[in-house]
Design brief:
Layout lengths: L4 H20 L2 H5 L2 E8 L5 E2 L1 H12 L2 E16 L2 E14 L4 E15 L2 E11 L2
Parallel strand pairs: 1-6
Antiparallel strand pairs: 1-2, 3-4, 4-5, 5-6
């Protein structure tokens, strides 16, 4: 099914809100991008539920003094009130000891349309070699 312009724009805006919240270190705005029963999988043990995802993100962000996260659109497929997508991300971080980390990865997403708009139902990170 081809993507309607409104759906594509709304899902792109969701990803941009997610990325902007990372740059701003805004846990409230970041967690608002997730559905209540969403799953976040960074390649280890998946975390399920918006509150648990928020807590995991806050704990992870405490390790870093700087985080840069850029998402490049790759593809979207919408079917009614659900959608899937893949975004290429480039992330660069620095911790308090001055160590830098960088990686490029794919986020494989599932989205759900809620009364508040599109939200992440699942994000699964796959780091590229």
């Amino acid at each position: 099914m081809s993507i309607g312009t409104d759906d594509e724009t709304a899902i792109r805006a969701l990803v941009h809100r997610y990325t902007s919240a990372i740059a701003d270190r805004d846990a409230e705005a970041w967690s608002a991008t997730w559905a209540d029963d969403a799953t976040w999988d960074l390649g280890g043990t998946p975390t399920t539920g918006r509150d648990a995802i928020r807590a995991a993100w806050v704990a992870a962000m405490e390790r870093f003094v700087d985080v840069g996260h850029v998402a490049t659109f790759a593809e979207l497929h919408v079917e009614g009130d659900t959608a899937t997508g893949r975004w290429v991300v480039d992330e660069r971080t620095a911790d308090a000891e001055g160590r830098s980390f960088a990686f490029v990865a794919d986020y494989h997403d599932r989205y759900v349309r809620t009364p508040s708009g599109w939200r992440f139902a699942e994000r699964r990170l796959a780091i590229r070699p």
